Amino acid sequence: MRYRSHQVGLAQLPVSxxxxxxxxxxxxxxxxxxxxxxxxxxxxxxxxxxxLDARSELGEGPSWDSRNGILYWVDIFLGLVHRYSPYExxxxxxxxxxxxxxxxxSRSGGIIVTLQHGFYRLNLGGKPSLISEVExxxxxxxxxxxxxxxxxxxxxxxxxxxxxxxxGALYVLEKGGSVRRALGNVTVSNxxxxxxxxxxxxxxxSPTKLVSAYxxxxxxxxxxxxxxxxxxxxxPGYPDGMAVDSxxxxxxxxxxxxxxxxxxxxxxxxxxxxxxxxxxxxxxxFGGRKLDQLYVTSARAGIxxxxxxxxxxxxxxxxxxTGVRGLDTFVFDD
Length: 334
Hints:
Neuraminidase; 6-stranded antiparallel sheet; 2 helices
């Protein structure tokens, strides 16, 4: 894959962080804005813009807080929750103290996160407060991706840390703090999304290379009638996180595939794709004032020596002006 890149501005983006002064200085040095466009061949006419050359080990879990115009995202391996303001070009990173795999805004204010073995409330800059422990006895597991449904429930799945065995499950945090198990026999729980009419839930267990669809009840949060919406066997990499737009199309990040692809879940066909100048593309969500900007996370974990030697912006935060309105991030109803 070949890309052309050009500088948008030489001034560095201001980045504030609760990390050490040395880390803050390095983050400021790295935060230079670039636009990446297609080289030869390939995708439709969209660009991916590098917002932050954050060098995250495992950037993941973006969610848009429309009330405050803030993008939250995490670095799982470094235990960091990021708060990014696109209007100020400002990123702040807060230490959660352990693996942190997903973050969602709550209706009462603040954020809810998944740490290795549970759901927690987190006041940024403070210590996490446990809501409910999950799989505390399974030391070989950890939480991975998570997202809220239209009814305000927080869905999040676990995974085998070695990514080999189906030891994980998909859980639901209900209002009031109770947790139920929705699915089992999961290897690497990943992307979640809901159709615009709130009748269908989409779900990814990455090693299957499938996007599954379920009938979904908004009133109860129950799912059933699993079927395959998208088979990605012939696509590059593995399906990771995803987002849904207002037309009901799925935008899926490709781990190991250098791209985000827009799929029609009714036909299973790929409609368009946008190349990202990082191999490990992890997740995406819609944001911005018009909800037409797709924020994309990536990872440095898993990149090869050739990609690293070329100065790849792997681990960066990217943005795509999609030209289509996305669905807003649902908040946890507490």
